[in-house]
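Exam prep: given the inputs below (a chain plus adenosine-5'-triphosphate), describe the expected output before reading on.
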Amino acid sequence: MTSPYPGLELLATAVLMLDDRLQVTYANPAAETLLAHGRKHLLGAAIARVMPGNEAFVERLARAVAEDSGFNENELSLELGGQTLTLHCIAAPVAEAGDSRLLLELRELNQQLRIAREAKLAEQQQANRELIRNLAHEIKNPLGGIRGAAQLLERELPDPDLREFTQVIVKETDRLQSLMNRMLTPHRLPQIEMLGVHEVMERVRTLLLAEYPQGLAIRRDYDVSLPDMPGDKESLIQAILNVARNAAQAMAGRGEITFRTRVARQVTVARTRYRLAIAVEIEDNGPGVPQDLAGKIFFPLVSGREGGSGLGLSLAQSYVHQHHGLIEFESAPGRTRFTILLPVRSPEQAGLARH
Ligand SMILES: Nc1ncnc2c1ncn2[C@@H]1O[C@H](COP(=O)(O)OP(=O)(O)OP(=O)(O)O)[C@@H](O)[C@H]1O
Ligand SMILES: [Mg+2]
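Solution:
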């Protein structure tokens, strides 16, 4: 069915239109999600029936209709789907083809806060990445010179035993060089194609099982109905591998990792709403992310692992952002789950021509 108000379909705010008997005549997808009812159930239903337990609110709506007036409330508590939600609510009377209607807008407050916080965090991370990138460049440039000079020096050394020292210089500059190269990688031009996310996950699974041939089990729980999505295969493999490898390392190679995929509907990432997204979950039964690191593991150079460079998750996050997605985690001893949310954009949105 085509929508009478196409412009409202992609909004993150739930929008409902009620007639003068408080029956729903329109509900956008965000309203379907908020009220946990499909449009079929909502259309024609009395508002009191689709949000039971909110008698006072329904009465206010009835008053608004009777008096042909509206109201605006910043912190409205409603019982929805078994929880109490705090919402920002606007009710406004509108006339439509001679009939009077009540337009109802509902937006979850914590959602508003979350979007603002996410946007700020993304900005900060972008600034961090720029800083690190510039720093890496500056460090990388003189390394070649240092290495070359050490080699020249080595040839001139009168005592071969002294070579041990020039060797240290050469080896350490090589180590720094490869660290800097890793920091600079995310700026390769992405090659976007339509791909199946399971193919990506199977590659990661094979790679990781080759690294940990014993003691590691990787269980798959895939939703096989997932659509293809536009993406850069190599960077998605790298992103998921970095997350999954952390899980294996946290369990010292012994334990179980679950690869899960699910469809997510009506998600908002960085202020943009998508109808459909793919949720990729990597879950392990290891000790969990150390508490003192929980707020900063996505920052570069933050590591809780002996010998870790702290780049894995920061790179994974860059790759996921390139795909307009987001990555988050929840962790407790015995169960840690990283979720990568990848919006399914159309080939046109992703700049791909359809063949
Ligand atoms: N599944 C997990 N379980 C427990 N801790 C984790 C998990 N994933 C990440 N961590 C913690 O987050 C830290 C940061 O991870 P990140 O991948 O960014 O760096 P790293 O693994 O230390 O180094 P690198 O990936 O560059 O080799 C890890 O050192 C670890 O302490
Ligand atoms: Mg890592």
